[in-house]
Each structure stands twice: as C-alpha cells, then as structure tokens.
C-alpha cells in the first residue's frame, strides 16, 4: 500500500526546494498548486468560477487569474467559495494520479494549504517546512518581484508555523540546504522503517 506523505509550509518556507530534492530521491511528488492552476483552465472549472464570480473574471472564455485574485484575496467568504470549486477537482485529480504509483512505497503531496483544505486527512504522515519569517519574506520578495506588504498579506491568509507544526508528524527547519536535505533523508528513513 502506497503511503501518502503530505508536505506543507508557509509561503517562502522552501517547499519547492524540498519537493525537488524528494523527487531526486525517486519519490513521486504531486505539486497541488501547479495542478490547481492547470485545472483552473479546464472548461468545467472555468464555467463554475464564472457562474460564481461573474463574467468579469473571463476574457474570451479564459480565466483572468489576477482579476479573480483581487476578488478573493481580502474576502475570506469569496475565497472559501473559490476553494469549494477548485479543491474537490484537485482531490479527484490527485486520487487519479496516486493510482499510477501504487508500486511505490511513498508519494508526496506538496500543498501550501494542506491543513486549511483538509487534505491532511488523506495523508499517512505530514512534514512541515518552517523557516524564519524574515528569510521567508526575502525569498518571496525576490522570487515574485513584489513588495513586503503584499507578502505579509499573503502570509496572514495562511496558517502560522505553530498551527502547522502542532498537527505535523515531522518538521524541517529550513535554514541551510545541506541540513534540510539531511533531515529529509532522516525522515524518509524513519518512514521506511514504520
């Protein structure tokens, strides 16, 4: 039976780097945000979103992601509505994806909002990546070419490290790449022996 390992952490914590390292170990990794982005281009999801949020989020049948983000970003109720459209599609897509890897001992589901979306309930174990707030801020500002205030707002829309850690089986404090990789190796060794 393939075990599902959840991988999460706040924005800028280093989830992508850890996910890439896990992939390099030969473990299949599902990147939920990338898949959600892709699923949001399908006719079914675009239709459901435009029905809920109006035609102003479309341009010639294509979803205007920036426009949608402006609508949901500071409105928890509207964000919840969007999530109720997208999350079930991601779950179904992930379930289909897992079926391709039944001969692997583990697969990893990387998701920024693993706990918020309730996806953790389907995981055999959860790994949380943490990093100092200032480090995270600097990473995201550099990566997204954005300003500090925007990143802080995005952070405030996510669970805190403390909330994630309290519900996680394993924690990686991502300060240095080498120490982080070593910790990943330790965790997967522990998981193999369970």
The number of helical elements comes to: 9
Write down how many β-strands occur, each being a DSSP E stretch of 2 or more residues: 7
SS class: alpha/beta
Instruction: Return residue spans where pLDDT drops below 50 for at least 5 consecutive residues.
Output: none
Strand order of the largest sheet: 2-5-1-6-7
- What is the general shape? globular
Rounded mean pLDDT is 93
Distance between the termini: 13 Å
Whole-number radius of gyration?
Answer: 17 Å
Could you describe the largest sheet, including whether it forms a barrel?
5 strands, parallel
Q: What portion of residues is helical? A: 40-55%
How do the SSEs run, as a string of H and E?
EHEHHEEHHEEHHHEH
Q: What percentage of amino acids are in beta strands?
A: 5-15%
Protein architecture, described:
By secondary structure, this protein is α/β, with parallel strands linked by helices. It contains nine helices and seven strands. The strands form two sheets. The chain has a five-stranded parallel sheet, with helices on both faces. The protein has a two-stranded antiparallel sheet with strand order 3-4. Helix 3 packs antiparallel against helix 5.
Helix and strand topology:
Elements: E1 3-9, H1 15-24, E2 29-31, H2 32-39, H3 43-53, E3 58-59, E4 62-63, H4 65-73, H5 76-98, E5 106-110, E6 125-130, H6 133-144, H7 148-156, H8 161-166, E7 170-173, H9 177-192
Parallel strand pairs: 1-5, 1-6, 2-5, 6-7
Antiparallel strand pairs: 3-4
Helix pairs in contact: 2-5, 3-5
């Amino acid at each position: 039976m393939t075990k599902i390992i959840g991988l999460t952490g706040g924005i800028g914590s280093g989830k992508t780097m850890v996910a890439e390292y896990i992939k390099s170990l030969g473990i299949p990794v599902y990147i939920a945000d990338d898949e959600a982005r892709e699923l949001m281009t399908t006719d079914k999801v675009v239709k459901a979103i435009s029905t809920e949020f109006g035609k102003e989020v479309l341009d010639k049948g294509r979803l205007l992601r920036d426009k949608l983000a402006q609508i949901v970003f500071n409105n928890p109720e509207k964000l919840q509505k969007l999530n109720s459209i997208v999350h079930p599609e991601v779950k179904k897509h992930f379930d289909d994806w897992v079926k391709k890897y039944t001969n692997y001992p583990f697969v990893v589901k990387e998701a920024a909002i693993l706990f918020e979306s309730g996806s953790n309930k389907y995981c055999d174990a959860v790994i949380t990546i943490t990093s100092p707030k200032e480090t995270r801020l600097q990473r995201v500002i550099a990566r997204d070419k954005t300003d500090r205030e925007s990143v802080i707002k995005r952070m405030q829309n996510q669970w805190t490290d403390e909330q994630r850690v309290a519900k996680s089986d394993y924690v990686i404090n991502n300060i240095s790449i080498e120490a982080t990789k070593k910790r990943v190796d330790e965790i997967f060794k522990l998981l193999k022996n369970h």
